[in-house]
Amino acid sequence: MSERLDAWLSHRGFGTRSEVRLLVRAGRVRVAGAVCRDQGHHVAGAVAVDGVEVVDGPSAATLLLHKPLGHACSHDPREAPLVEELVGAPWAALPLESAGRLDRDTSGLLVLTTDGQLIHSLTNPRRHVSKRYRVAYRGRLSAHAIERCARGLRLEGDDAATLPAVLEIHGEDTDGLGRCTLHLREGRYHQVRRMIAELGGEVVRLHRDRIGALVLPGELAPGGLREAEPDEVAALFREVGDVEFPG
Ligand code: URA
User: Is CATH 3.40.50.300 what the domain over 57-247 is classified as, yes or no?
Assistant: First the structure.
């Protein structure tokens, strides 16, 4: 389906919908060679602004990003550096949103997409999409940490206990920090950090390396991104079956 002219221009970096409407009304936009003053016109043919043809790029995308430490999942420039600054051509002007957030101090697999339905499905707690987090922590986790995660934890300020989660404790590494893996099927604010704190530890490093059955692609270095293949999008909603969520 073709896009409205105002959306088409906005998605290609010419400003917000209201900004591009002004451009269109001022007669600065031509479609297929003729001035077009109708912002609702459905684009067919070459578009030029101020006489310069707009080189067309994709109007939609789903990207896999290896989020590096230090970037915020936000559009607020006061929180820079932002994840969106990592997105270059040909996707830079697209209205990409992250499907679920990672904290500034968390690295790992992040899905950026223009597809609102995909965001809704991935973040809907009823879909129970699982996420795997690799954790390095200081301190000692309480004796019944695994059972407590399986039952659900009460976190301060939350009305309901967490959904049953799977905790694997791997013991201490040579750097003196404990290592564990936490599998969650929801995404509350700072959830892993708060759960580990509730269990007696303090998260020092946090990395998400899997969503559903999709593992962070090995070729993506921190900051690297590429378009997701359709089978990779499908894998986000599949379960591997290597962990069994209780309940
Ligand atoms: N849990 C957290 O505490 N932080 C994240 O970034 C993701 C999950």
Answer: no
